[in-house]
């Protein structure tokens, strides 16, 4: 069996401010996570001849991967966070106050709701297809450092969760989800690296 490690980026400055989207750097706690993650990955994958680290093209995932050394890194635009379009950079409270109809439509159907000039969860699921094909093809371990909405979709694929649950799956910060792809199926372990 070979592991696929899924993790969100370390806490970002926008996470602290409660803003969605953006391209901010990490908070102090996010920076601590990046070091703990590197330590974990180096220990977990030290016996593996090859492994690779995949990130999105956004700073918060690239910075989270920085302390990990000795493995090739690949940036995928398809791993970027759901595009919140006109709501990019806003807090949920602001959306609720300034664009109540948008807020309500998303609440009614989070899977299909598409942000104006942005994406829906269904759009994200679709753009992940090449990533999933490549993940399945790889024979070596892969560490995927990405974002909440994207990881919900990736995790759902491996854990065989129904579409409608995807937007609500819990993918906490500072936690590694290890998926083991074996002949008998998929096994999962979680490592919470910080409180
Ligand atoms: O910035 C986007 C969030 O990571 C996605 O969360 O789909 O629950 O609003 P949400």
UniProtKB/TrEMBL annotation:
This is CBM20 domain-containing protein. The chain holds residues 487 to 681 of 681 of the full protein.
